[in-house]
Specification:
This protein has strands spanning 4-5, 18-32, 35-53, 62-68, 71-75, 84-98, 105-117, 120-128, 145-154, 158-161, 165-183, 186-205, 208-227, 230-249, 254-274, 277-280, 285-297, 306-319, 325-340, 343-359, 373-386, 391-402, 418-431. The protein is mainly beta. A hairpin with a 5-residue loop joins β18 (306-319) and β19. The protein has an 18-stranded antiparallel beta barrel.
Length: 432
């Protein structure tokens, strides 16, 4: 079989790459239930990128069968019709100062660099005090943590199709990270992350994307000793395996997403690694992973006037903040965003119920027992007015009931279920 290579770069004669540099500076003040009498914030972000839409699918990447109007066969080439080739760097950070005599301060920032072409992607990230959210598999705290990651996205090993439909098999993403904890005047190792996700088979048309037999394996651990060629430590593991995940674009403004599979969670337990072989011990919780979401809207990107709204419901599974327990239940979500010239209104709600289904072998004696039920959630509101094309004033308010810890809260969480609330107002200057 003749092998035909059509290598595409970021700059080709048929498509012009777009260079963009932009950012935002803001300052504001607010109040928090854990910060009395209030706080002031200042933040900034900047992004520099070069991007262009991916080339026509029939002239893209490496072809085993020279593509024509009847289609073709590709190897290790992304076939997303809406894909973009790009490269860039971004950074953002926030400093929060508590308005009291001690002038307590906290800060968090993130940086990212990436390059993407033909469905391949390389990415490096660094985050100080990562914040997390309710959908995290492991509700570990990011307080005083520096996390660095390197990731590679590998497109489908082979694909076939035409402009109107495509079938692809064997896409992977590998994301490896490490964590350092700031203690006193120095930094100490705080563990590693391993995240591998895959899509066995994807079938897509203009209106349907169906992924079959997809999965994500996440291991979060700490190595404690090395004896010869064997490494010993402890880790917590999360595995999500979906038999099918379907996104159906019913119309230009309405899309439905559904998934079905199982979620497996293993609390902190011992492991040992010898060469490429790993063995771990400890109990595992297996629960259904089901969900459906409806999304409707006219705004195609964050700067477009119009609205977006979504409503979803599904199963929910997590490792608790200590890593020693697994909780499972149900989560309902809703969000909406409306923009019209100068004004913007938005809101989001997450509300769910969890039941403790498993305790790890190393769980402390004072842990909540299996069978304990908990109701948790978060709601937020946003209102903004654009004074000039570059300057806007935004006000936000939020309330959350959970047992997680968030570095943005000046008082660390105790691990008990608690309610946090806050509001702020900021002025933002955008440039590009």
């Amino acid at each position: 079989m003749k092998v035909c290579y059509a290598l595409a770069g970021l700059a080709i004669s048929s498509t012009v790459a777009r260079a963009e540099v932009g950012g935002e500076l803001s300052a504001g003040a607010g109040g928090d239930s854990s910060a009395t009498p209030g706080f002031a914030t200042t933040s900034g972000s900047i992004t520099a990128s070069l991007s262009r839409p991916a080339t026509d699918i029939l002239t893209r990447g490496a072809a085993l069968v020279p593509p024509g109007e009847l289609g073709g066969v590709w190897i290790f080439t992304g076939i997303d019709p809406d894909d973009h080739d790009s490269a860039g760097v971004s950074a953002d950070g926030t400093l929060l100062v508590q308005a009291d005599s001690q002038a307590a301060r906290t800060a968090w920032f993130s940086t990212r660099a990436w390059a993407r072409a033909l469905g391949w992607q390389l990415e490096a990230r660094a985050l100080f005090q990562p914040t997390g959210d309710l959908r995290d598999r492991f509700w570990r705290s990011g307080r005083s943590i520096m996390q660095t990651n390197a990731a590679i996205g590998i497109p489908a090993m082979w694909s076939l199709g035409t402009r109107d439909w495509q079938l692809a098999a064997g896409a992977f993403t590998v994301d490896l990270g490490k964590r350092l904890a700031h203690e006193g005047a120095g930094w100490n190792a705080a563990g590693f992350d391993r995240d591998v996700s895959f899509i066995s088979l994807r079938i897509q048309t203009h209106s349907i994307k169906l992924d079959l037999f997809t999965g994500e394996y996440t291991e979060l651990g700490v190595a404690t000793s090395v004896v010869g060629a064997t490494t010993y430590g402890t880790s917590a593991t999360a595995i999500d395996f979906d038999v099918a995940a379907l996104t159906w674009r019913v119309s230009q403004q309405l899309a439905v997403t559904m998934r079905g599979g199982v979620a497996m969670r293993s609390p902190i337990s011992p492991f040992q690694i010898t060469g490429s072989a790993e063995m771990s011990q400890g109990p595992v919780s297996t629960t259904p992973d089901l969900g459906i979401e409806l999304r409707r809207g006219t705004a195609l990107d964050p700067d477009t006037n119009g609205y977006t709204a979504s409503l979803g419901v599904g199963t929910w599974s997590r490792l608790d903040p200590t890593g020693h327990a697994v909780d499972a239940g149900y989560l309902a979500t809703a969000d909406a965003d409306w923009r019209n010239g100068r004004y913007r209104l938005g809101g989001a709600l997450q509300l769910g119920r969890l039941r403790r289904v498993l305790l790890g072998d190393e769980a402390p004696a004072d842990m909540l027992p299996v069978g304990t039920r908990m109701v948790m959630g978060r709601g937020s509101l946003l209102a903004a007015v654009r004074v000039t094309p570059q300057i806007a004033v935004t006000s936000t308010a939020w309330v959350e009931r959970s047992d997680r810890d968030d570095p943005r809260w000046l008082v660390p969480a105790t691990g008990a279920l608690a309610t946090h609330a806050g509001a702020d107002i900021t002025a933002q200057w955008r440039f590009r």
